[in-house]
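Re: [ENG-882] Designed sequences occasionally contain unexpected residues at chain ends

Forwarding the minimal case from QA. Structure tokens:
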């Protein structure tokens, strides 16, 4: 099994009223429950507009726009992608970017 990091971009963000927020949390909870033993780290949403890009020369505002992450474990990339298609962020116009974590020997 390999780890895959899902980076979320976009979506509608946090709902403005309690009922909509509750429904959104229920969708994510259901999705995490469906992952079962494939869930490594549920992750968290990122605070909007706090992302910074750091280079050797400067720190600046980034344009990536990541809104959160989750780490999952599947046998291969195709399985990770297939499950990611049911991610709640997609219902709100967001995106899921799937990255396979490289295994490092000796670490």
């Amino acid at each position: 099994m390999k780890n895959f990091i899902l980076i979320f971009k976009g979506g509608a963000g946090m709902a403005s009223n309690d009922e909509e927020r509750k429904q959104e949390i229920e969708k994510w909870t259901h999705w995490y429950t469906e992952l079962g033993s494939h869930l490594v780290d549920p992750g968290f949403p990122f605070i909007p507009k706090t992302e910074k890009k750091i280079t050797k020369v400067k720190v600046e505002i980034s344009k990536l726009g990541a809104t959160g992450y989750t780490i999952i474990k599947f046998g291969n990339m195709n399985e990770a992608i297939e499950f990611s298609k049911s991610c709640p962020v997609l219902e709100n116009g967001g995106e899921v970017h799937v990255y396979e974590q490289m295994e490092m020997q000796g670490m």
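QA comment: On inspection the terminal residues look reasonable. The chain has a mean pLDDT of 88. Proposing we downgrade this to a documentation issue.
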